[in-house]
Amino acid sequence: MRLLTDVTPLRENPAYRRLWLGMMLTRTGGVMTTFAVTLQVYDLTGSTAAVGGIGLATLIPMLLITVPGGTFADRVDRRRLVLATIAAQAALSAVLFALTAFGEASVWALYALVALGSACSSVSAPAQQTFIPRLVPRDQLSSAMALQRIVFQVVLIAGPALAGVVTAWTGLRGCYLADVASFAGALWGVGRLPPMPPVRAAVTPQSAGDAEQADSGDGGRDEGPRRSGVALTLEGLAFIRRTPVLCGAFLADVNATFFALPVALFPAINAERFGGSPQTLGLFTTAIGVGGLISAVFAGPLRHASRLGLVMLACVAVWGGGFALFAVAPSLWLTLLALGLAGLADTFTVVVRGIIVQQATPDEFRGRVNAADFLVGAGGSQLGSLESGLVGSWTTPVISALSGGLLTIVGVLVIGVALPGFRRYRAATPNLEPTELAGDLSAAP
Predict the structure, then answer these.
(1) Beta carbons of 145 and 300 less than 8 angstroms apart
(2) Burial (Cβ within 10 Å: 0-12, 13-18, ≥19) of residue 5
(3) Which of 1, 221, 401, 428 is placed for a possible disulfide with 262 were both Cys, Cβ 3.0 to 4.6 Å?
(4) Are residues 186 and 293 in the same domain?
């Protein structure tokens, strides 16, 4: 039982349980929309380059919006901010449904709606991450982060399959309509949370007056001069720069996704090695998802891990090794095993990075640091796909995948030597609670 992920946060914390369930429902709808947009763009153009343009439409708003959005989240009630972005995303999905249902969709309209949705997600996703350390005790944080990853892996496996069934039954408009309906889950999960304003470091939550102020929505913020968004953004970046454990965690993740994420090579390697069977190609992504789900379910040992920096470096090395093995595997079963191993390591990497980010960041910086975390995770994967595709076109797909995996392992060694503070980082003592809002938010109705 010690191997299984601890479900205590779900069992004992109604507010976290609602947030978790609502997130799973809404993200399933989001995956269905991603599936539908990809297929719709290809149907309209017959061009794989046009499909690749979806990634560009996603990445550009992410680069422009994420960090300023994190700064804004550190100035306002994050719960209200997330609710506003959820409403905007639901409206965008409704527009996609209307355009598809009435035959008015065009490629540029789809790109524009994808870009707007990416901008909303770039604000909403980091802000939602700040809820977790406010809802669960510190000793349950690792379990809560593992449970978050279970949501990701379940949606990764089930979402596309469900989208395929719905598309065959109702057409693409059914996916968009299901996505609109799924936002009810997010509204239910987030809407019943208590106010979530940022807490300043000077706040002493033992004060009863602070508790009343927090409940009133003012969040215990100091009455000092209001600084500009640029100043707050620079302050957040300076905090990351002078915190070695955060620098190490972000660099380790960028190292993993930039070099060893050869998704763009999957079709070519499948065609070269397995005759281009679409069923086999689908198994590649499924293998990664299954490996990640297994490690998310059996993430119990992470509760007792203390050398989190060293654990993350080891997981990134296994991730790189998995893709290096994928590059040279001569048989299908070994190919899928290598991808499953990479997926398994990826989940541990993401969970440990999430624990480090939440433990090492004071609440007043969480919006900005979680924004940087989101940008590193999501933006790095987009750049990694571009990098592997370019190297594969200059050399061969096998050389690209193999060199990327090996360079990731080299990068782990370099980061470990260059940032000893990250390599030696130990988890915070569980019984030392962070400075948060006064009162027990885990008992929120």
Answers:
(1) no
(2) buried
(3) 401
(4) no
What token pair was written down for 291? 């490996």
What is the pTM assigned to this prediction? 0.69
Does residue 225 belong to any structural domain of this protein?
Answer: no
Longest dimension (CA), the chain: 69
Q: Is residue 221 part of a domain?
A: no
Domain that holds residue 329: 244-428
Q: Are both 260 and 203 inside the same structural domain?
A: no
The token pair that represents 265 in the structure block: 């090579």
- Pair of tokens at residue 336: 């899928």
Each of the 445 residues of the chain gets a pLDDT tens digit; together they read 567 778 889 998 999 999 999 999 999 999 889 888 888 887 888 765 677 678 788 888 988 998 888 888 888 899 999 999 999 999 999 999 999 998 888 999 999 999 999 999 999 988 998 899 889 998 888 888 888 888 888 887 788 778 888 888 888 899 999 999 999 999 999 999 999 988 765 433 333 333 333 333 344 444 445 666 678 788 888 899 889 899 999 999 999 988 887 877 877 888 888 887 766 776 887 788 889 888 888 877 777 777 899 999 999 999 999 999 999 998 999 999 999 999 999 989 988 998 899 888 888 888 888 888 888 887 777 777 777 878 887 888 899 899 999 999 999 999 999 999 899 888 765 433 333 332 333 333 3
Residue 50, domain member (yes or no)? yes
**Same domain for 345 and 384?**
yes
50 within 8 A of 41, measured Cβ to Cβ = yes
Q: Do residues 201 and 270 both lie within one domain?
A: no
CB contact at 8 A, 80 and 180: no
